[in-house]
């Protein structure tokens, strides 16, 4: 169920004028992500013993005293940037992408994603405005589909190395507000119709730079300011430690899923049918697991799951919950593709092997193609194939690039592909987490796409066409 305050925020966006003259300015740390990206970068340096005792002592002193003005914040930035002096700009760009994909992406608030997407649907100019650097903010902007970034720029010398100094004023407090006003003037944005979102006490001037301010998980001073000015307040769900209830329920759900799989397989073995055992196990495991987790599945276009079998079913992969979800959707006569590491997974490996899953080495394209070859024979025998064309779980709800393996298989077997678009399973089970939150997963099953006219020459175009179906569905979810 959507939080009423979030529903009201989305309605304010839908009621706003269309077009790029309306700006939507988002703070980053604590607003778009749960936590602070600088801490992730700092932990990276600590793990590599790149932080000296003097730097630690200076940070402690600043922390004890607190940041009172832009000068204090400037000293903090100088201290942090000094540790990167001499490193190449490209090294930091690569590190930013690595840390975002590996750690930070899983902390993106799903609610922030919804707000950004709602503004994009209205054609608004969406901007990430942060005191952080481009190395921290850039990967998130790309993942969220945001073209414009306002951030604290760092100095790079002629050799492409960081000097350890900033360029211009940091985007903190009045500096961020000034940057928004300048950006709006240059890009023809009407600040009287524009939006801004932030969590920090220091961002009151930033929020005052537009007419439609919203406090997100506000710190105490900002909460008081929001109350006085009548600003809407949003409370995003923490991506931190789960509650005891969530942990217990998740353990029960995982146990129930495994028990359901095992029971179904045992029933199939009694009847002398491996295929029947796999089908019973999939249904029982999914139904029991989802029920114990408190997860409901809202499916649109469910008839498309059964209209043209066998087929290659494609899904956008967001979390470990997807495997159970797909068992609930498919129910019978299907197998799938999984990364080779899952072959020996202590919880599900035995069931995946029993179901004749194709295990692929994502780092070895030749092996991956070879592993998919038997799938053509299975399709011709009436067994459908379920594949994540992105090749791996997406770090965010954004649709990633599609690999062509599943499309080659469908073309060779002359069976249709059926796009399964999953909107929010990652919201209920975050990447690298075993905790399942209760809620509703939305699924849209699109019409089967024939492959009879596909050829090796036009395959790239067909892959792009199918991917665009996912992008459009996510952007304009069917009602």
TrEMBL record:
GO terms for molecular function: hydrolase activity. It catalyses: a 1-acyl-sn-glycero-3-phosphate + an acyl-CoA = a 1,2-diacyl-sn-glycero-3-phosphate + CoA. The HXXXXD motif is essential for acyltransferase activity and may constitute the binding site for the phosphate moiety of the glycerol-3-phosphate. Keywords: Acyltransferase, Hydrolase, Lipid biosynthesis, Lipid metabolism, Phospholipid biosynthesis, Phospholipid metabolism, Transferase. Residues 311-425 form the Phospholipid/glycerol acyltransferase domain. Belongs to the 1-acyl-sn-glycerol-3-phosphate acyltransferase family. Pfam families: Acyltransferase, HAD. It comes from the Bacteria. It comes from Spongisporangium articulatum. Its EC number is 2.3.1.51. This is 1-acyl-sn-glycerol-3-phosphate acyltransferase.
């Amino acid at each position: 169920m959507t939080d009423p305050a979030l529903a009201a925020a989305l309605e304010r966006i839908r009621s706003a004028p269309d077009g790029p003259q309306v700006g939507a300015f988002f703070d980053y740390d604590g607003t778009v992500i749960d936590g602070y990206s600088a801490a992730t970068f700092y932990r990276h340096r600590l793990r590599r013993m790149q932080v000296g005792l003097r730097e630690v002592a200076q940070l402690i002193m600043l922390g004890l005293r607190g940041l009172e003005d832009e000068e204090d914040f400037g000293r903090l930035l100088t201290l942090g940037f000094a540790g990167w002096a001499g490193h190449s700009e490209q090294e930091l760009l690569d590190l930013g992408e690595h840390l975002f994909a590996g750690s930070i992406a899983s902390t993106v608030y799903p609610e922030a994603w919804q707000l950004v997407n709602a503004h994009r649907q209205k054609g608004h100019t969406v901007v990430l405005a942060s005191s952080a650097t481009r190395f921290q903010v850039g990967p998130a902007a790309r993942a969220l589909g945001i073209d414009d970034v306002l951030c604290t720029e760092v100095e790079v010398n002629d050799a492409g190395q960081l000097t350890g100094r900033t360029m211009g004023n940091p985007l903190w407090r009045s500096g961020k507000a000034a940057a928004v006003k300048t950006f709006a003037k240059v890009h023809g944005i009407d600040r009287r119709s524009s939006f801004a979102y932030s969590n920090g006490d220091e961002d009151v001037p930033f929020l005052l730079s537009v007419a439609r301010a919203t406090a997100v998980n506000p710190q105490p001073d900002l909460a008081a300011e929001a109350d006085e000015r009548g600003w809407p307040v949003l409370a995003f769900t923490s991506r931190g430690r789960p509650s005891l209830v969530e942990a217990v329920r998740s353990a029960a759900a995982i146990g129930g899923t495994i028990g359901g799989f095992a029971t179904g397989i045992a029933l199939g073995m009694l009847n002398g049918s491996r295929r029947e055992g796999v089908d019973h196990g999939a249904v029982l495991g999914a139904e029991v697991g989802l029920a114990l987790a408190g997860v409901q599945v809202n499916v649109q276009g469910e008839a498309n799951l059964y209209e043209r079998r066998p087929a290659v079913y494609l899904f956008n992969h967001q979390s470990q919950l997807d495997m159970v979800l797909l068992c609930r959707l498919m129910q019978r006569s299907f197998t799938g593709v999984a990364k080779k590491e899952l072959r020996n997974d202590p919880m599900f490996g035995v069931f995946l092997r029993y179901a004749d899953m194709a295990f692929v080495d994502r780092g070895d394209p030749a092996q991956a193609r070879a592993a998919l070859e038997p799938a053509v024979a299975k399709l011709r025998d009436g067994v459908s194939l379920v594949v994540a064309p992105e090749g791996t779980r997406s770090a965010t709800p954004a649709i990633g690039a599609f690999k062509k393996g599943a499309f080659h298989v469908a073309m060779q077997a002359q069976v249709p592909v059926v796009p399964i678009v999953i909107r929010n399973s990652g919201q209920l089970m975050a990447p690298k987490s075993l905790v399942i939150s209760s809620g509703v997963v939305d699924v849209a099953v699109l019409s089967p796409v024939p492959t009879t006219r596909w050829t090796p020459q036009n395959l790239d175009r067909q892959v792009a066409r199918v991917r665009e179906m996912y992008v459009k569905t996510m952007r304009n979810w069917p009602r």
